[in-house]
User: What shape does this take?
Amino acid sequence: MSNQTKSQFVAVASITSELTAVMVVAREISLAAANAKAIAFRAGDKAKGFQPITDFINELAKETIELVTNINVSALLLYRVTVNEYRRTSAYNKFQQAAKLADNAVYAKSMQAPVNNAKLRMEECQRQFKRDVALLLGQLETVMHHARAARVIAANSRIEASQAGEYLQSLQAVAESVDKAAHTIHDNVQRCRRALSVYRNN
Assistant: This one.
């Protein structure tokens, strides 16, 4: 197995691991939204401005979970393409070796067609890998956008929480948990993007 192929396997495996962590954090945001909704309901008019924010938090969490689910599917497809690329590269190398060994044989020229065919199949797989990487990077960028939006919502949540009287600490704790979760998602997704961006222009 070439170093390039090994690094592709490692990249895809690390992405899967990071996305699992993102999914856990997105579910935590969803729970935070449910807690915030209950607190805002109890606070009544004191947390009037906080109530619609809880809906935004919950919607954002749901969308992030859906996005990560789709990205996991894309990561699995990328893994399969990596496996295919490894197999086709191995086949091409073997055909090349066989062609070299048969260089002086009577029917040496008959080896050229299988070598060319194996090369075409390998190159198509490499192009597919690049296309899938580009798709995955686009999906990850959307998750990054959601993480940035969650941080903005967390900042607004703190402002609204300051008006909530005795419920201030409870609502600020929700805002902090959303901000922390958004920061974690951002960092995890950034690591995914770094792992993939190496292959975008290769």
